[in-house]
Batch of 2 targets.
Target 1
Amino acid sequence: MANRDRVRFNVGGQLFETTSTTLANAGRESMLGALLDESWNPGQPEYFIDRNPACFSTLLDLLRTGALHIPSNVPEKLLYREALYYGLLDHVRGAKWGPFDGNTLRLADSVPGRAPGDGTAIRGAPDGGCCVAHGSVVHVYNWMLEERRPISLDYQQVNDVGYIDANSIVITARERLGKGDGGMAVFSAATGELRHRFRVEHGRQPKSFTAGALSLAGLDDHRIFSSCKGRLNEYGIGVWDHNTGQQVDFFYEHPGCSLGDADKLQWLPSKNCLMVATLFPRTDNCFIGLLDLRDKSIPWCWSDAGITMNLEDKRVLHAIAMEDGHSICVINQYDDLGFIDLRAGNTNSAGTGVRWSSRSKLMNQKVPYEESCYPKLATHNGQLFSCMNDSISVFSGSEHVLTSTLRRSYGGSICDFSIGGDRLFALHNEENVFDVWDSPPCPII
Amino acid sequence: MNSQSQRRKNFKIEAFKHKVELDPKYAERTWKVLEHAIHEIYNNNASRLSFEELYRSAYNMVLHKYGDKLYSGLVATMTAHLNKIAKSVESAQGGLFLEKLNHKWADHNKALQMIRDILMYMDRSYVPTSHKTPVHELGLNLWSDHIIHSPNIQARLQDTLLDLVQRERTGDVINRGLMRNITKMLMDLGSSVYQDDFEKPFLDVSACFYSGESQQFIECCDCGSYLKKAERRLNEEMERVSHYLDAKTEVKITSVVEREMIANHMQRLVHMDNSGLVNMLIDDKYDDLSRMYSLFKRVPEGLSTIRDVMTSYLRERGRVLVTDTERLKDPVEFVQCLLNEKDKHDKIISTAFNNDKTFQNALNSSFEYFINLNNRSPEFISLYLDDKLRKGLKGASEEEVEVVLDKVMMLFRYLQEKDVFEKYYKQHLAKRLLSGKTVSDDAERSMIVKLKTECGYQFTSKLEGMFTDMKTSEDTMLDFYAKQSAELGDGPTLAVQILTTGSWPTQPTAACNLPPEILTVCEKFRTYYLGTHSGRRLTWQTNMGTADIKATFGKGHKHELNVSTYQMCVLMLFNSADGLTYREIEQATEVPALDLKRCLQSLACVKGKNVLRKEPMSKDISEEDVFYFNDKFTSKFVKVKIGTVVAQKESEPEKQETRQRVEEDRKPQIEAAIVRIMKSRRVLDHNSIVAEVTKQLQSRFLPNPVVIKKRIESLIEREFLERDKADRKLYRYLA
């Protein structure tokens, strides 16, 4: 009776014996699941499969143990192809890396760039793929880090990119004078096809515009935000439904609060507000504010207006709202972290209100050399990440203690990094190479 | 070197002009294999097929870019099969039609599953990138297009389904399992297929059916049985949904039944002659009422319809009740009647109307409305309490007492003129306390506590003062007798109740002339009291006292007479005379004429209590009458209580007087309220003052706007307020 459960395969001439219980892990929606389904005369003494036995062996072990071990004689790409044949690709992806933790990251891969310099942004996809905005083209990679068809918005300078979901990429691009192009659109990540454009209307008149920083509202909220610069001083924040592409709102710039030039947008669900940070304005001052779109008010803002700047002064170069929604973390040119409390009223008074932690003094770091990139910040599951020069620092705990440093490639300093699909992607400035970091699957014991 | 370069020249490397492709014939051959397999699957011959081979074939076609060919081939093959199936379903006779359809649907599903299995790779890689419909969904769409929407099937299917429902509604038993399979099929094909091909026509037909049926029912049924039928239909429809329709259909079909059977006939139902809502209320038809409530609750305006009818019925019934002159004769009966009415409807609301708050409010507002229609209600409620506290609650347990008091408090809450009630309550309480007639001190105090929690300290402070007086009096008398017993000898025993002026509803009446025996004791008490309490003044309220006297009649019959102080004064006169004229009595006693007449009436004209004899014999006392000691008086009791003829209810002039006193008392309260309001607001217009004063005082009474205006004028005269110079409607507060 025990034999009932046993299944024999002849794969490319090599015999395998396993059990239907093991094969059940493949699921009904896989080739093996269908093969053993009762509608297809199961119970044969032996099933012949005309495929590569080494790969089958690896995949069978994956079904047996849930862990992926690729023997050195099996090329990874071949294994992926075989997994796709059996319908087990998702199993492979799930076993390839573990849940994200900034302190266990290992370098998974380095992908060389297409051209030197000029990398604008890198974004991680929810499934572990990524895309790199490079000049006027966005290079898209699946989670196996194979490049897909690149996408572009009429070959305009790309300002920002983002994933709506694993298969949809939204791009913002600069408007070319006199062309009425540029703007913002959604593309298919798989095929690079244009899905739809986002248009801006002022007084029911469609207008061309330059779209800057992007932010998505969240899982159940279909809104997408972007900073917009129009031709006739129509500056502000545009709001669209990312499913339909319809414009749902527009927040016009208030005097003294530059929004159209914003470098960073972030939706804060707990406050029902959008954080806008304009850190490199052409005129005026640095501005960070929370926008309430319902009544078009700015319930909280901060600015460095009134500080006489000299080179040694600490300048806010990037900002991110912490996940608890209580504070905004900022970083300066010396890699110092600073915090601005969101709960304490309107701290409009001249750059005070930032609580700096003087890491630079402790680490006795030199004033950064020329041609470096501005530092950037990210948060994930309570951990805080900052990039400076060619390394990424990981800060953990409520006191933001430095716990790890990631440094690897030789492509110069890091110009952007992103966390998505349980992976961290870091884009280097000079060679346009990007590093992929992920956490290993759970250890054996 | 030369030769080498020469050779290089000859050796030409050609770029591939074409990608290496599979032999097109191979693609055709592979498709033939797959096509054959699809045929075999539809013909139930799949057991001879090799899944691995078919899967690999489909994989190869996609891999070598023949995905288009594979997909379009699939569509064509499946369509051909479905057209064949359509023919076979169409040819099915009568009742076999659904069976056949169901059978073929099961086959198609199984085939579709197997086809999807072999084309799984295409589904995974070709379909998403080329914007095609996945195989399973494609199979369902083709089924809808070629079977369900085939011209020979669509209408027939719809008619068959609707006919089955109709047959079930008229009592036939149908094959629910088959029905469920078919509706399940429509749902599987997408909610729009289910809705368009079944649900919409189903709802239309149902609306039509129930519109007709309700018309028929309403012509021949009474309200109760109509509601029963409607409820049964509603339950049937819900049951039908649970057996073989989409759960989402439930709200839709029930709303059809609700609209057709209830909403469209609501007014007619509640007002139905002899069986409508009013009759149900009168006859306490809890089941019917409960059914009406739960059914009407389902439709908009349903509950408000019931509520409105109930309210107007209650108001009308209450109005009749409180203005019925017959009932007004007995206040206790009157209040009991109100309480019964309240109990009855409370029970209806709790058993049939789910204790609905809005219904409770409607009941309360109705009571408030009609109780205040009769301005004697406060008096009657107090009289009811008086009756209960005098004797009605004798032997009742503490809980029972509480229940009665709580019920009365509920009526009290409805009163607008709470201050009038207070007046009467005070009077009645005073009488109870002074005559020692109260049944239970606890019950009295419990009532005071209830009034206090309802209306505040102010309301009851004087009532509480009365209790304190009673206690003090008792102590004083004990002390008096302890200290003075030697001096008093065996004269008459005196019991004095010392009442604080102001706490008690006393009328300043001249004291009558007391007999000398009593006067001596009274004087002794006065000396004692003023000796222990300096700075006080004692006035005798002879109109409120009682006396026990011993009398000996003819043949040595001895009786103890329990009489009022006035009566005692009169009787004592007969110790020294056998006959006295009215004028002589009046002169000797100085009892006020009205009281004297009453007391003589009770002494001479009541049968069994006639210790005096009057000449001439008549019912009424005239000033010419002569009174004699009735030597022949007999009674089987040793103790004889001679009551005074007093109307329990107030007579018309008394009522006027009380009313006047109430109005008088209201004046300072209204003025105080006006001053309070103006002090905080400084400037206010007339209408706002009236509104605010009414709001502040409504817990005690409803002030009349005319009276408020008069009070404002009086305050202006006394320079508490002034009119604004510019705007005459504005008043200013003068500090």
Target 2
Amino acid sequence: MWWRSPSFILDRQQQNDTASRNPESISLSSPPPSMADTLQNPNPNTSTSAYYQTRAVVTSDWLAQAQAAVGRHPDDDLPVNDERTKSAAGDAGKPFSVIDEFNSWRKQPDLAEAVAAIRALAAVIRASQATTMMELEIELKKASDSLKSWDTTSISLTAGCDLFIRYVTRTSALEYEDFNSAKSRLIERAEKFGEISCKARRIIAMLSQDFIFDGCTILVHGFSRVVLEVLKTAAQNKKLFRVFCTEGRPDGTGLRLSTELAKLDVPVKLLIDSAVAYSMDEVDMVFVGADGVVESGGIINMMGTYQVALVAHTMNKPVYVAAESYKFARLYPLDQKDMAPALRPIDFGVPIPSKVEVETSNLDYTPPQYLTLLFTDLGVLTPSVVSDELIQLYL
Amino acid sequence: MEPRRTSRTVSDPKVRQVGFFTSQHHHHHHHHLPERSFSEPPLPDPFHTSTSTSSAPVTDVSPSGNLLSPVMILPSRHHSDNLHRLSHRATSPTASFSYFARAVVVRENDDSLLSPGRRGIAVKSPSSVVAASSFPKGGFDLTAVKASSVPASKLTTVSVVNLPPGISEKAGGASVEVQNDRPAKSKPLKQKTSKAERRATQEAQRAAKAAAKAFFNLLLKLAVDLYSLAEGSKTSAAVPGPVNSANTKTAKSPKSPSQKNDAVSVAAAEKKAGDRQLEKDRKKDVPHPRMQYDDQSRVEKAKRRAVVKQTEARNRVELFRHLPQYEHGTQLPDLESKFFQLDPMHPAVYKVGLQYLSGDICGGNARCIAMLQAFQETIRSYSTPPEKSLVRDLTAKISSYVSFLNECRPLSISMGNAIRFLKSTIAKLPLSMSESEAKATLQADIDRFINEKIILADNVIVKHAVTKIRDGDVLLTYGASSAVEMVLLHAHELGKQFRVVVVDSRPKLEGQLLLRRLVGRGLGCTYTHINAVSYIMHEVTRVFLGASSILSNGTVYSRVGTACVAMAAHAFGVPVLVCCEAYKFHERVQLDSICFNELGDPDAISKVHGREEINYLDGSTNSENLQLLNLTYDATPSDYVSIVITDYGMVPPTSVPVIVREYRKEHLWI
């Protein structure tokens, strides 16, 4: 129903469209074969159900997808790898600190906080002087705790650290009698996890291309690097679409996004936050990022996401969430107040009388029933699958 | 009332299809006819007359006559057939013996035909038609025999006399189905006879083996025999199957004492084999816990083996006929009187069964733990009989216990899961293990199950659930759930400031028990009935509910009224938290509260305890126009559930199948 007939843009550029479609559809059709491959040779280790052999969290399939992503954009990832090895080597000499490591990773503009944390934790394992597995685990735990306390309100940071520890230590390596080989296994896994996390954005961008059709209008709320990547890829694929950006008070996140998009020659329109409902009937789909994806399948994101989703739901527009799987958190908020509030001062431009209370919360929770699909590096998921994946990983 | 009902059922066959019958139109008629039968003149047919002569006043309104009339050709032919056989039997005991052999064949054959996807009473041979319709007389016969051999208590007699109306009605239904099914089933009959015969010979061989058994074994059995003798018709019916019961019953209809004696003597002659068969049947055909009680053939079969003689309530609500409903209060004395006759029943199981029956043990966890502990007891005192293997014999024993418990009160889903666990544990015992070792392992496993799956699971649930309670909350709970109670008490111990609204409902008023315990521990409580739930809901911030089970589609199966509370909460935007241990999850899917449920005592809702003046329904409870529905459970769709708190964490109701899938398959619960 949301698949409207192509609008003005398509009429204008019918020719270009057909020309550009062919190469693009070829590049898009390559992920499915790789999936089919993994379906045919499922993991021989049958401790997980067949269902998960083909689509498990952090399994062969994920790796295959990541590899495919690397193959297509090798230049994106190489500098990251170089940087990592450099910084790891540099840290080896002086006393090791996770936070320093984390901060050095964070300097990279495109690297998400959680990925920086994951990289830092990988460095912890490498630099560890521990001689037993237990020691190493405790060290890792301490490091992740200090990272988490660095920003307690960031859900993706917490979730990323938890998932890292989960993923890295949940391996048969821990049963190796030889500590050194076990440790190298762990480092290997940690590297893998870090790489996967880095590539997640690219995978998501590729997966979401099928959902962006020519002539569509996309409403975006907030500034999300994943969403930007999605739109960038769509533009590169010569898709014709326009974007509505909400202003995103108080940080002006929408302003940022609109300038980025304007650079890509994507038609952009800025809306004030309160104009969402007004312009919703022109919109074909809503794209949002997420700070965290919670166990119910709902998302925690920038203030205003909930109302955008509500409006879209009411007007029967699909709401798509682009989120990397390291943002999956074992949280289950029942309502808006059921989370640790992330507060942020708001500048109203005029002095506010002290008697007036200001709501400074920065995040809201969008329940799963208002979301249509989640684009993650694990695939395109319905909200209820999130809990499925989390159960799989945590238990 | 009457025209509406009739027209509805006729015009909308789906209404009746809940009972899992295929599109047989007659059906509807048949289930309805009994209610009207008072007004209709009984048709003069051989069958009908026999019925009325044989049994109490109730039966002479038996609809069998007019029910059968459209289909009548068959039974009458059969009747004569019977008489013919009867004469056979009367002449010489040997003849009767051979007859029994034949009867067995028929029965087995019947069985094999019926077992796959049976519909109603799929009768291929006329003989079993009579069997089906004959049941009331069988029942009557039973009392008569009992009266002669055993000092029957008055109560039992009463209960049996109560039987006919319900049954005769069934008989009607059955006979009609017969007609419907016959064309379809008549073919396979032939092919299967050979198999049946093979089975018969096996039966004979086994009987021979039995004869070789130790003498004291026989002696032991004598007691049981006595019991089975007392239930003359039961034994004889169990041995030769429907044909025989039909026989006895036709024999009885003229009510000649000699024939009754004959039946008894025959039963006695057949005693050994019969007893064996009975025992075997009990083990083999444990009635399915979710038996369809409007499936005549199965009900009859189950009845023949039933230990607990429950009187079926008469006016069951149309949509719920597939569920058992019994007159309450009649079984207990009967069961008690049988205590010493029930050789195979372990006292511990017996005790638990009686406690279920009387309602002394209720609540999912309590029932499950009681059952497991009873099984533990039986395993402790179990010794493998000679020439049997522990794995198989013990499984059969457990099965027979389970069927007994199921007769006392339908098993809950959690109990079903626990039984499944136990059986799989038994099956997985290594053959090399010695008996004492095996017993010790099993007992330890049961202990482990109770600890890990129930007690520890509850602790984990409590730990998770208290994180959802904030200061200033108003928590609403419905009924009495042990898990919710623990959550509330623990949150209170942690010093959280909250208030509790206990919503309750008639007739069980379980909430009062919870309320008493909560108030005793110093929690601030509000007590109200479910009628006020929409009033109280606006001040509530969280709804905590327990569950009897959660099904694979997220449907919460719980005490009746839960759905109402959950829906009210949903309408008010209040989150609904369901606390349920993962061992109660079930892979089944259910969309309504009809297919699977439990019917409580209808009297409980027609009377108000302690209020004698509320007696408006006195005298009309037996009216055909009044049907009382006392449901025990209902199904809450997952849309109304915000979160399921279980021992694997807090998950959305859509993740229940994930847990079932991931944790059941591999280690089967442990």
